[in-house]
């Protein structure tokens, strides 16, 4: 397979193997960094696909990588509570932004975008849920294709998507902008009403952050 995202399968394997380490949380000293919401909400390279009410009192942005084990753990263990308790009830407006740590993660995000705005979040949910089945295997490209087939992405659509140079550039521009403008350097990194919270958040940690914001 050729294309901008997948130049060498061996490189993908090596990069995926270190993704879990690269996704480790940075030092806690970065946690008190605040970015003005207006700056965070400025039009990113890729359009935001928000979940929750636009009038929610709390805005939460997650920068994640599809091959980050900490991100997958957050989406398995904390995301269901975040969605049911805060997003679906109109308390939090949430968006997942692309911060790929390696070309395989970039490919996963591209496939989500190629599926269209209505299916993108379902694709990322699927890839997080089944991360161990495609990201850390002997043939990750084939495994990735087999995984997204479950969401109706055909072989031709898979090939076409991963050869989309413009989309590839935008996904990586999203990552580069976050690093340059907001000093994101690991995944997951959250901004909650502009305050930076690096590292995976448990349900208890999330409650501790959100509840005071909702009472103020």
Describe the structure.
There is one protein chain. By secondary structure, this protein is α+β, with helices and mostly antiparallel strands. It is 51% helix and 10% strand. It has a 4-stranded mixed β-sheet. A hairpin with a 2-residue loop joins strand 3 and strand 4.
Give a quick rundown of the structure.
This protein is of the alpha+beta class and 216 residues long. It has helices at residues 9-22, 37-40, 69-77, 79-87, 103-114, 120-129, 131-134, 140-149, 155-162, 165-182, 203-215, and strands spanning 58-64, 92-98, 189-192, 195-198.
Strand order of the largest sheet: 2-1-3-4
Shape: globular
> What's the count of strands?
4
In whole angstroms, the N-to-C terminal distance is: 53 Å
Low-confidence stretches: 8-31
Calculate Rg over CA atoms. Answer: 17 Å
Number of distinct helices: 11
Please describe the biggest sheet, giving its number of strands, its sense, and whether it closes into a barrel: 4 strands, mixed
The share of residues in helices is: 40-55%
Q: Beta-strand percentage?
A: 5-15%
Please state the average pLDDT score.
89
Structural class, from helix and strand content? alpha+beta
The string of secondary-structure elements, in order, is HHEHHEHHHHHHEEH
SSE topology:
Blueprint: H1 9-22, H2 37-40, E1 58-64, H3 69-77, H4 79-87, E2 92-98, H5 103-114, H6 120-129, H7 131-134, H8 140-149, H9 155-162, H10 165-182, E3 189-192, E4 195-198, H11 203-215
